[in-house]
Amino acid sequence: MSLRFLPWLRAERPAPGAALSFNVGATPRSVPMAALGPGDIARLAPGLQVQPDPAPGSAGFPSTFLAAARFSDATFPWLFTPGAPDASGLLMPWIALVVIDDDEAAARLSQRPGGLTVLTMPVARLPAAVELSAFAHVQVTGDLPSNADVLSIVRDQPGCATSRLLAPQRLAPSRRYRACLVPTFEAGRLAGLGEPVGDPLSPTPAWQGDTGEVTLPVYREWSFGTGADPDIETVVRRLAERSAAEWPAPPSLDLSALGVEAPAEYRGPLRPLAAEPAAPSDAAAAKLAAMLPPDAEPSGPGAGRARITPPWWGEGHGARRKGWSRTLNLDPRLRAAAGLGAELVRRRQDTLVDAFWRQAGAVLRAQRLLIGSELAGAVSTRLVLKHLAKASAETVVHALRPAASAGGSPLLFARVDAAAPQEAMAVASPALRRVASTRRLAVVSAASAATTAATTATTTATPAELRTRRTLPTFHLPDLQLLTTDPLFAMFSHAAPPQSPTPVSDVPIPSPPLVVIGELAAVALQTVLADIAERARLPLRIDTGDFAPAGASGSVRGSTALDEPLVPALAELGPDLVFPLLKAVPEDSLQLLAVDGAAVEALLVGANVELARELQWRGAPVRPDATLLANAWVSLPHPPIADWGAGTGTPEPPLGHHAAHLSATVIVMNSPLLARLPGLTPWLTQGVAVGERGRRPGATTRAPLFMHALSDEVAYFGFAISPDELAGRDGSAGWYFCFAQAPQKPRFGLDEAPVEPMRTWLDLDWTRVNSEGGRLHLAPAPQPPQQPAGLTFGPDGAQMAAILLQRSIRFAIHGSQLPGLGAS
Questions:
Q1: Pairwise CA distance, residues 231 & 749, whole Å
Q2: Cα-based angle 425, 381, 533 (whole degrees, multiple of 5)
Q3: At 262, phi and psi to the nearest 5?
Q4: Assign residue 96 a region: left if phi > 0, alpha if psi is -120 to 50, beta otherwise?
Q5: pLDDT in tens, 520-563
Q6: Of 204-213, 416-425, 721-730, 790-799, which gets the smallest average pLDDT?
Q7: Three-state SS across 431-487?
Q8: What are phi and psi of 584, to 5 degrees?
Q9: Is 341 in contact with 288 (CB distance < 8 Å)?
Q10: Per-residue pLDDT reduced to its tens digit, 205-252
């Protein structure tokens, strides 16, 4: 959005003695015209649109800003100004905005009969009449052509221009104020007070000099309060001025229960960047090894005795007694992290179990269907062996006709010679073809039976072939109850579908259901269930086993993943459990941290072990090696714990190295900005080289992998980048840590603290201007900045508006300037 400021705007006023001439029929007429002046204004119309800033009754307004009043009419502050512009081309507004302190005895508001509010205050507290034009301006939104007729543009596009009055009074933190709209001409003052007015167009100011008091009528007034915090720009500048924190020793764990006198440091998910965790205590590891379950069952005397031991974390996930599992279980610091993960689950167990059951409903339903299909398969196999194995195709058709008439989608099986599949329909002709045409049946060819007792089909078909077999038309089946794996399933399981079935995400499965036996049945079932799990995105893990027609055994177990990030949950137990040195983070600072990957993975192991135990105790169909809680942070899943072992031909990764995000560089911010700018989300911008030694932010950006607020003013942000890449130590131009304030309505003011050198007018602060008597003076003017951009302090309201305008904050600091990385 582009803004342009004008010093004033007013429509042409009629000259003295002017008249409006017109004809009434053939008779000329003339009506005298007279301009209205401030002496004609006693009150403001109730419907006049005035937009105060700050809003009435608000608190927390930055004390470095100026109060303002905006009008939708771009000409309003000069509408009743008498006379023409002065020799400098300036036009004094007929109305002004003044601000008084609620506790100031010298300035006071009072009420008069008729609801009139009057303000009595020292003249020295008011701006001089010659300075009033500097605190009023017109704001035009959008591009304005040079030499444009602004009045015509405003008439055609009334929303593109507004007018504004600024109050030059300097505000103090944590105070209550009242803003008042008052007249600036003596004629307007008298008219507002209800006193006799001589010339309503008199140009005499309402106050002059710098002594005595003046009583002014108040057209509008409202109250507001300032905040204790400095302006956002000052807070942002402090972030770049803090040095690296001097981190103390982390909190200690008492190991006396292990018989170890020396304490161990607590390890949380985050640690200082340069503080690598110390090696574990050999004494503590030896004590734990003696207490934990042995690698093998003991033999000899007392071998059968029960022994209560601490858990071996991760054993149910296939973890061997070496590698990452041994690192976790023999280090008391990591066992503490695993214990915290278990404690998180214990505190939320009902919520987590309910979430599991909500997702596991589809798993249980599929399991019941699978058990029913196994039973039907076993029964129908016996019937096929007894009655249909050696029968002709016509006999098979007639035998299955009762099953065909029992339901809406009957099932048929025709045994044909595997060597001549093209004769399949010929075998079924004419009887089978007539039945198929009237009943819409599907005939699936299988190999002829062998001489063995079982009818194991010799036809081989891959799941892909089953999906593409053209003889099987497909339709959208909304319910799983019609799934089958055997030709006679319909005779024994013809449950009617529910009245309002729940659609399975538009899953196409064969219709009629796949009619196969023997080995082909196992392939068919696996294919159909896999399609359902994949296309409906159901949390299923399919295990059909061999699924032989006799003695088939299959199972459907849940591998449901719960979206419960563990590190933010740990912060609810205590923010210092996430970062043990949280209280040592300096205020108004950015500090660099690293992820303690071993502590994070220990937390995951403990939480998943405890949740699997709880679910199994409650009878849930969960695998003992399931990783149900895979997120350390929001939407950042960890690989399953069962897959943490070594891959083929590769060494096993150590604990803390099973996910890429565990190597993230973390930036922690302690600043009131987080409370004042809700939803602040920083990012990284890649630097580009400028010249031999210069650099600037480029166009490539990188969003944080994870982020979390530990309090109202402390949050951390993790990025997929190394410290060397961030600081440019790898030979690149490095990266910038950036954030921006959301676009806001125009506000005007000065900075609180000086910036050296003052490069532009944006760096102008209250120490460089004359604020004697608690208000902003135009003289003496401050020294211009290095880059004034053609602006001069004081001549008119347009230039003052451009100088005092406060832009939205955009912050960028190079990685080499972050505390702890040093200069590159």
A1: 10
A2: 80
A3: -70, 130
A4: beta
A5: 343 344 444 444 444 444 333 333 332 222 333 444 444 567 88
A6: 416-425
A7: HHHHHHHHHCCCCCEECCCCCCCCCCCCCCCCHHHHHHCCCCCEEECCCHHHCCCCC
A8: -90, 0
A9: no
A10: 999 988 899 999 999 999 999 988 777 888 888 887 777 778 998 898
